[in-house]
Amino acid sequence: MDVLRTPESRFEDLKDYAFAAHYQDVHAQDGTLLRMHYVDEGPRDGDLILCLHGQPSWSYLYRKMIPILSDAGYRVIAPDLIGFGKSDKPGSVDDYTYAGHVDWLNQFLAALDLTGLTLMCQDWGGLLGLRAVGDQPERFKRLVIANTGLPNTTTLTDDVSGMLGQMYPMVPVPTAAMVQEQFAGGAPGAFLYWVKYCAEAPDFSVRDVFGLLSSISDQAVLDGYEAPFPNGDYVAGARKFPSCVPLLPQHKADRLAGDAAWAVLEARNYPVLTAFSDGDPVTKGGEQAFIQRLGNVKNVTIRGAGHFLQEDQPESLSREIIAFIQET
């Protein structure tokens, strides 16, 4: 496995990101050693909050929330998933799988022996974090679920998966603008456009993704999100993530693994806060699955936020998390 490591110079003087770097080694399936970066802020004896990002962000997404939560007395750990941020980046899209990402996260949690965790997960942070809860339920105490989901055979039946498998070859290789049009129109196959854009578009750009899914206009902030990716050689992980969502027939094993994680969530009855935003075209309505299937759910709507609600409404989201922890 060929592994890239973003030069440290790319992370110098980033806006609002002056956290000390910490690293933990994990192993790829072939034995390759990979360095995983994480932020660790707040009092050592504070209740632990694990903040997981998605695609194509990194711990930079939590830069506004980390001081709020740590100042409130919580210890905040925000890792960069493999392929993102300051973590190592396997160079081929074939190096990334859903199961592989779950395994890397499980290794990270076990190596640091993190327990009593409040999980804060968004986007792929949920698809991975909730699977980790299923694998290591004893490490978690409560869950904050925001703008994400946990695919399984109930929501993605064999019939639905087969239909999506037939549709995918007919989807043209889109531009970012075409993806935005599909999401805005609420087309049933909109997510397939997103998958194909990330996987095949020759002009794929992390900056364009934030243009598609956010209203960020501050170029210094966009520079921060783009910092981990000096050129196209570094974006294999970002390109592959949407293709790992277990939509298609060949992803049945991942949907079954989702079933197993759901079973743990239902049995453990963790306190759950669903905090979806009011302006995310990707996950709109996704909180309903958690509200309907889990019995101990507090639901709030984060208003005035898009997909990256940590970026758009960090104060509101942080306040809801703090209140939720205090209540539970």
Describe this structure in words.
- The chain has 328 residues and is α/β, with parallel strands linked by helices.
- The chain has a single domain (3-157, 250-327), classed as Alpha/Beta hydrolase fold, catalytic domain (Rossmann fold), CATH 3.40.50.
- The protein contains 13 helices and 10 strands.
- It has helices spanning 65-71, 98-112, 124-135, 158-167, 176-185, 190-200, 206-213, 219-226, 236-244, 252-268, 287-293, 309-312, 314-327, and strands spanning 3-4, 22-27, 33-41, 48-52, 75-79, 89-90, 117-122, 140-146, 272-277, 297-302.
- It has an 8-stranded mixed beta sheet with strand order 2-3-5-4-7-8-9-10, with helices on both faces. A two-stranded antiparallel sheet has the order 1-6.
- β2 (22-27) and β3 form a beta hairpin.
- It is globular, with a radius of gyration of 18 Å.
- It starts with a strand and ends with a helix.
- 47% of the residues are buried.
**Major sheet strand order:** 2-3-5-4-7-8-9-10
Outline the biggest β-sheet: 8 strands, mixed
Estimated radius of gyration: 18 Å
Low-confidence stretches: none
How do the strands and helices of this protein lay out in sequence?
Elements: E1 3-4, E2 22-27, E3 33-41, E4 48-52, H1 65-71, E5 75-79, E6 89-90, H2 98-112, E7 117-122, H3 124-135, E8 140-146, H4 158-167, H5 176-185, H6 190-200, H7 206-213, H8 219-226, H9 236-244, H10 252-268, E9 272-277, H11 287-293, E10 297-302, H12 309-312, H13 314-327
Parallel strand pairs: 4-5, 4-7, 7-8, 8-9, 9-10
Antiparallel strand pairs: 1-6, 2-3, 3-5
